[in-house]
Design goal:
seven-stranded parallel β-sheet; 12 strands; 36% helix; Divinyl chlorophyllide a 8-vinyl-reductase, chloroplastic; NADP; DVR-like; plastid; 3,8-divinyl protochlorophyllide a 8-vinyl-reductase (NADPH) activity
C-alpha cells in the first residue's frame, strides 16, 4: 500500500520560513534597520537588564520654525555637514564600524572636519562583508588611516588600536540574530571601549538606536546592556539614538515609479517615524566630540517636522512620483502566526532560534513607531511636517538621499 512520505517538522517549517522571510524583506524595504534609540526615563527595561536610571534629559528634533512652550527648553543647531574647518586641537579619533552604512558617513565627516581619523576594519568589511581593506581605503578620504583588526577579539583589537583621544562606534549586528547581536552590539562594542581606554581614550561616542526604548528584541537588549556599561565606564560619553534613515523610506521607490503598490502593515497608521538624513546624523555625531552640551547624554534624534506614518509616506511618495495611489495593507496578524510557529519549533530545533528572532524583528518594525516615547511608552506627537525629502526625490530622479537644506534644532527639556 502506498503511503505518503513523512516529513520532519523542520522540513514542514520551510514554507513558513520562506513566507516569513518574504514578509521580513517587505518590512525591511519600508523600515531602516536602525539600526537603526531611547530616552531617559521612558526606557522600558526587560527583567534581565540593568536598572540604573537614564539621565533625566530628553531630546527632540523640530524644524527651525518650531518652538517649545516649556520655559525650561533650550535650542541649538548642530554643525551643518558642510563644515570643514579643522578643530582647534586636532584630536585623534578611532572609528569602529566605519564601513557600515552610517559609519562611512561618520568617517568622512570626521575627516572633513580635520580630525586625525583611524578606521579599524575587518578583513572583509562593509555591508555584506564584501569589501577588502584596500577597497575600504579607496572609498574613504586619503587622510583616514585604515587598520585591519577584529573587534570581536580583544587581544587582536588591543594590538592594533592606536593611541587615541576618542572612540566612535558605529558597530551593529548584520543579522539581528541572537548570538550575533550579543557578539557585535555588546561584546565587540565593549572591546572597542576597553581597548580605547587602554590607549588613552577619554571619550566614547556611540551610535545606538531609538528602538531600544522598548526592548523586545535581542539586539536591543544587547545595545542597552552596553549603554549601561558605557555610562559606568568613567569615560565621557554621548549615546546617539537615531530614528529611521531616509534610505529606509526609499525601499519601495522603484516599485511605485513603475506603477506597483506601496505595501504597508495594518491600517497604515502603525510604525510612524521622523526620518533623518544620513549626513545630518553623521554631522551630529561629529558634534558630540566638541559640543559640551552633548556629552554624558542620551540623545534621541530624528529629522525635522511631524512624524510620518506609512500611509502618509505612501501619499507623499505617490505625489512625488506622479502616479495614482495604489496600496496593499497586510494584516499584522500574519506575522504573529509566523512568530508563534517559529517559537514552538525553536524549542525543539535550536537552529531555528534565529529564524524566530528574524520574524520578531520583522513584526517589530512593522508595528512599532520609531519615535521618542513618554514615560508611559506612548509616542510624543509633533506638529510640523517636512516634505523636503520627497520633493528632493522628485527633482533628483528619486534617489534615496537628501542634502541638508534645513538646520536641525534640538530641544532639550531639563
Amino acid at each position: 500500500m502506498w503511503r505518503p512520505a513523512r516529513r520532519s517538522p523542520a522540513r514542514m517549517a520551510a514554507p513558513i520560513l520562506a513566507l516569513s522571510l518574504v514578509v521580513l524583506l517587505g518590512v525591511t524595504m519600508m523600515r531602516g534597520y536602525s539600526s537603526s534609540s531611547s530616552l531617559g526615563s521612558g526606557v522600558v527595561r526587560s527583567a534581565t537588564m540593568p536598572t540604573r536610571p537614564m539621565p533625566m534629559t530628553s531630546s527632540l528634533v523640530r524644524s527651525s520654525s518650531s518652538s517649545s512652550s516649556s520655559p525650561r527648553s533650550k535650542c541649538w543647531a548642530p554643525q551643518a555637514h558642510t563644515f570643514t574647518a579643522p578643530p582647534q586641537d586636532k584630536k585623534r579619533v578611532t572609528v569602529v564600524g566605519g564601513t557600515g552604512y552610517i559609519g562611512k558617513f561618520v568617517v568622512k565627516e570626521l575627516a572633513n572636519r580635520g580630525y586625525d581619523v583611524t578606521a579599524i576594519v575587518r578583513g572583509s568589511s562593509g555591508i555584506g562583508g564584501k569589501s577588502s581593506v584596500s577597497d575600504v581605503q579607496k572609498d574613504l578620504p586619503e587622510s583616514v588611516k585604515v587598520i585591519q583588526g577584529d573587534v570581536t577579539d580583544m587581544e587582536s583589537l588591543s594590538s592594533v588600536m592606536p593611541e587615541t583621544d576618542v572612540v566612535v562606534s558605529c558597530l551593529a549586528s548584520r543579522t539581528g540574530g541572537i548570538s550575533d547581536s550579543w557578539l557585535i552590539d555588546y561584546e565587540a562594542t565593549k572591546n572597542s571601549m576597553d581597548a580605547g581606554k587602554e590607549k588613552g581614550a577619554k571619550q566614547f561616542v556611540l551610535l545606538s538606536a531609538i528602538c531600544v526604548q522598548k526592548p523586545l528584541l535581542e539586539f536591543q537588549r544587547a545595545k542597552l546592556r552596553f549603554e549601561e556599561d558605557l555610562m559606568n565606564s568613567g569615560m565621557e560619553y554621548s549615546i546617539v539614538r537615531p530614528t529611521a534613515f531616509f534610505k529606509s523610506l526609499a525601499g519601495q521607490i522603484e516599485n511605485v515609479k513603475n506603477g506597483g503598490p506601496y505595501v504597508m502593515f495594518g491600517d497604515g497608521e502603525l510604525a510612524a517615524c521622523k526620518p533623518i538624513s544620513e549626513r545630518d546624523l553623521a554631522s551630529y555625531m561629529a558634534d558630540c566630540i566638541t559640543n559640551k552640551e552633548l556629552i554624558n547624554q542620551v540623545l534621541p534624534i530624528g529629522g525635522p517636522g511631524e512624524a510620518l506614518t506609512p500611509l502618509q509616506q505612501s501619499e507623499l511618495l505617490f505625489k512625488a512620483a506622479g502616479v495614482e495611489p495604489n496600496t496593499i495593507k497586510v494584516p499584522i496578524q500574519i506575522m504573529d502566526g509566523a512568530i508563534w510557529v517559529f517559537d514552538q519549533l525553536a524549542k525543539v530545533f535550536k537552529n531555528l532560534e534565529d529564524a524566530a528572532e528574524f520574524a520578531k524583528i520583522g513584526r517589530y518594525y512593522a508595528a512599532e513607531s520609531m519615535l521618542l516615547l513618554d514615560q508611559n511608552g506612548h509616542p510624543i506627537p509633533h506638529k510640523q511636517l517636512n516634505h523636503h525629502h520627497y520633493h528632493h526625490l522628485q527633482h533628483d530622479k528619486l534617489t534615496s538621499f537628501t542634502t541638508t537644506t534645513q538646520r536641525i534644532i534640538m530641544i532639550r527639556f531639563r
